[in-house]
Structure formats: C-alpha cells, structure tokens
Amino acid sequence: MTASDAEPAPAAPGLSDRDRALLALERRSWAGPGAKERAIREELGISPVRYFQLLNALIEDERALREDPVTVNRLRRLKAARRERR
Asked: DSSP character for 15?
C-alpha cells in the first residue's frame, strides 16, 4: 500500500447544530430585560440555567473557537474578568 492508496484521516467532527445555535443566540443583542431568557426557552427549548451551563462548556472547546472566534474570545474574556473579581 502506498501513501496515495491510504484513506485520508477522518476530519475532527465539527460543532453540533445545538452548539451553533448557542453561539448564534449569544451573538445577538437584546432589547430589554427577559428577552434573552425568553428566546432561550422558545428557540432552544431549554432553561436559561442549562443554556449557560452548555455555553460555559462550549467556550472551552477549540472547535467553537474556530467556528466563531469573536464570540468565543469575548465570552472567555468575560469569564476571566468574573473569575478575577472573586
């Protein structure tokens, strides 16, 4: 078997549709109090607490960074700033 006969290595799996939806929701701006929480429940069908748990884990995923570096880096900076205030 030669190098040209070898199958290419499988690509690392990308983000799930749910992960992309989390990032898309986080990119949006919100008109008033409660609007984001309402959108989380209506569009994603999860509680705001679960949303933030998932989002917190997602921003540590390098695939998310490759998918949306602006949003992920902004969220990482906010997380680091909150950690420093404690």
From this structure: -
Nearest alpha-carbon partner for 64 in 27, 25, 20, 26: 20
């880096």: which residue's tokens? 73
- Selected residue with higher pLDDT from 2 and 37: 37
Which of 86 and 11 is assigned the larger pLDDT?
86
Q: Taken in order 8, 21, 75, 55, is the CA torsion positive or negative?
A: negative
Instruction: Please give the Cα distance from 14 to 72 (Å, whole number).
Output: 15
- What local confidence, expressed as pLDDT, does residue 59 receive? 96
Cβ neighbour number for residue 36 with a 10 Å cutoff: 17
